[in-house]
Design brief:
By secondary structure, this protein is α+β, with helices and mostly antiparallel strands. The chain is built from seven helices and five strands. Strand 2 and strand 3 form a beta hairpin.
Length: 216
């Protein structure tokens, strides 16, 4: 058996596999999006029971196989329990993870995407921030990281100066300072309308968690 590797990442998706296992999708800093099997993770008392569910962020020790990894152990630093206890926050969180899964690629450095996902989930836990604002900041920055956000949007003459400034701020600000501002509902509405058009013209897959959000 090959030597185990340790990757820093977050569980984006977890589904049952067989009688007691779980198949998990991880977004990892070092190897991008990967699939791993957590053997026996659904058995009571399993050390992987609480480490193989969505929102878990930490270090994962894995064995590499030909088509997938096997999760051997995990050291979880953040479970986002506050977020999971809030229905609206959870829906936004699952949407963020589904978008990350959409953009994630195997064997590509995902440090920026992982960092963005982490700080965005932390922002959702902040009661002083509007979840809608966090959502559109996350969408714009994620699309920018993946080369799909048009910089010309920050110069759109149909937008107010405040809306253009908001977009430019998101595009030019480091991750750790993204969630340090608020805007009026009018400005957020302008940016949301622009971003909705960009997203609809770019994504080529149904995003189920977004449909749930829109039904709120």
């Amino acid at each position: 058996m090959s030597e185990p590797i340790t990757l820093t990442g977050m569980v984006l998706l977890s589904v049952p596999s067989g009688d007691y296992d779980r198949r998990v999708v991880l977004l990892t800093k070092e190897r991008g999006k990967i699939t791993a099997f957590a053997r026996g993770a659904r058995r009571q008392g399993s050390a992987l029971l609480g480490a193989s569910v969505p929102f878990c962020f930490g270090s994962f020790k894995l064995f590499e196989g030909r088509t997938a990894y096997t999760l051997a152990s995990a050291s979880i630093d953040q479970y986002f329990q506050k977020l999971k206890s809030d229905l609206d926050g959870s829906l936004y969180g699952f949407y963020f993870m589904e978008l990350a899964e959409y953009y994630g690629r195997e064997n590509l450095d995902a440090s920026m995407m992982l960092n963005l996902l982490y700080v965005s989930l932390k922002a959702l836990e902040n009661p002083r921030l509007d979840d809608r604002l966090v959502r559109y900041i996350y969408e714009i920055k994620l699309m920018q990281i993946n080369g799909e956000f048009p910089f010309s949007a920050a110069e759109d003459p149909t937008l107010s100066e405040s809306a253009r400034y908001m977009i430019a701020f998101i595009l030019n600000t480091p991750m750790q300072k993204l969630y340090t501002f608020t805007v009026t509902d009018e400005v957020l509405g302008e940016v949301a309308a622009v971003q909705d058009r960009i997203r609809q013209g770019t994504l080529d897959r149904r995003i189920r968690s977004l449909e749930m959000l829109q039904a709120l």
